[in-house]
Design goal:
The chain is about 40% helix and about 20% strand. It is of the alpha/beta class. A five-stranded mixed beta sheet has the order 2-1-3-4-5. β1 and β2 form a beta hairpin. The protein is globular. The chain starts with 6 loop residues before the first helix and ends with a helix. Bound molecules: zinc ion.
Amino acid sequence: MIQPFDDTYFMKKAYQEAEIAFDKGEVPVGAIVVFKDQIIARAHNLTETLTDVTAHAEMQAFTAAADFLGGKYLKDCTLYVTLEPCQMCAGASYWTQIGKIVYGASELERGFKNLGTTLHPKTKVVSGILETECSQLLKRFFIEKRNLN
Ligand SMILES: [Zn+2]
């Protein structure tokens, strides 16, 4: 069966990245960047591995996508990320002028929405794609982590 290239299809790819992060003991957030139905960047959170608080999945995905395209703007691209972007990543997305952001789970404390971070005026936002799966993975991670301590 040929799978359609819809938001759910691509969010599954971002989710696979989150699972890789989970297996590494990283907070499981995954992101991909899509350009013309093609995945041009895949990334997951690496803040522990790189001991770098800026190593969020989105930040790395932006860098990889710009590198792939040979230009810093991602106007015709879509970011798929399993968790609502934080202020830093939303701020970075402004500079990329990304065309669309699709996220899975909401982040009520540190997400850009509640904190009122401004996106680029041309950036469309879609939320709640595979929300349950994305948030369950995060919950499982924090439960397991708590049990280890
Ligand atoms: Zn972030």
